[in-house]
Design brief:
The chain is α/β, with parallel strands linked by helices and 295 residues long. It is built from nine helices and eleven strands. The protein has a six-stranded mixed β-sheet, with helices on both faces. A five-stranded mixed β-sheet has the order 3-2-1-4-5, sandwiched between helices.
């Protein structure tokens, strides 16, 4: 089984895969400080399959035979949290987790001027979108920031747009305005609010819908493409219901991207017999001749 962990600025999303099937996923706050012991406890409670004796015994046996056993992959945009989750994932799977970087893109070409600055979540979203939807495509991810990732044919990650997240912007507005109080963000029944709360709901919600549609249309015109538009993240379904440009909602897009990256870059099953180790039955053409020394 594969444990996939996506560490964002607001939430950590975790999922357990059995092959290509996502068995279960859940989210916790990433703003809470946790130790590796606490994260391991969370994982054991959420995914008991990884912690029971039978499963661990099977995993150990596979490792002894040169196989992979259970495995883990971590994508993170929060450096302070990364080693904590890597440590906990290692304890759960008895192996070194794969960490997503600009070098683990599953053949996606990052066309950022600085590829290292592309976030792990955006790389995972791109990988999953190429596999599940093809290109050209635009991925809209609603998180702490609202990101737009532009994907072109040839597995090219063209670049994108980063805007303040919907909840991030709303919280900042309430903090900065003395007479505005916290409100529930939900689709309002009408655009014209009849109270301060309704007016805030309308402005934040429909402002986000309008932002998405306007940016998607500008990207399509600039790149001269007719993209498939996929939304993911916490508010994806709510915004998509009112958007004129979003065509698909895929709440587990990032986790599937992590799965695909691990399939491409993670440890292979079975012992390795690459050229550096030689074939199983000894050298193919007899023993090598010693190279003459230079005097």
């Amino acid at each position: 089984m594969l444990l996939a962990i996506d560490i964002g600025n607001t939430e950590v999303t975790m999922g357990l895969f059995d092959g290509t099937d996502l068995r279960r996923s859940f989210r916790v706050s990433s703003e809470t400080r946790r130790t590796a012991d606490e994260v391991e406890l969370l994982l054991r409670q959420a995914f008991p399959e990884l912690g029971d004796r039978k499963s661990r015994a099977i995993g150990v046996a596979q490792l002894r035979e040169g196989g992979q056993g259970h495995a883990a992959i971590v994508g993170s945009v929060v450096p302070a949290q990364t080693p904590i989750f890597l440590d906990a994932a290692k304890r759960m799977t008895l192996g070194e987790p794969l960490l997503v970087t600009a070098a683990t893109t599953a053949r996606v070409k990052i066309e950022y001027r600085d590829p290292e600055s592309a976030g792990a979540d955006r790389i995972a979203n791109a990988v999953a979108t190429f596999d599940r939807y093809g290109a050209p495509a635009i991925v809209v991810d609603f998180g702490t920031a609202t990101t737009f990732d532009v994907l072109l044919k040839g597995r090219r990650y063209r670049g994108g747009v980063i805007a303040p997240g919907i909840l991030t912007g709303a919280e900042h507005l309430v903090r900065r305005a003395a007479r505005l109080s916290a409100f529930e963000l939900k689709p309002p029944r009408r655009v014209v609010g009849r109270s301060t709360e309704e007016s805030l709901q309308s402005g934040v919600f429909y402002g986000a819908v309008g932002q998405v549609d306007a940016i998607v249309r500008r990207i399509a015109a600039e790149e001269k493409i007719r993209p498939k538009v996929i939304a993911t993240g916490g508010l994806a379904a709510a915004i998509a219901a009112h958007s004129e440009t979003i065509q698909e909602v895929d709440p587990d897009l990032t986790l599937h991207g992590l799965r695909l990256i691990h399939h491409r870059h993670g440890p292979r099953h079975g012992p390795r017999h690459g050229p550096q180790h030689g074939p199983r039955n000894g050298p193919r053409n007899g023993p090598r001749k010693p190279k003459p020394r230079r005097h």
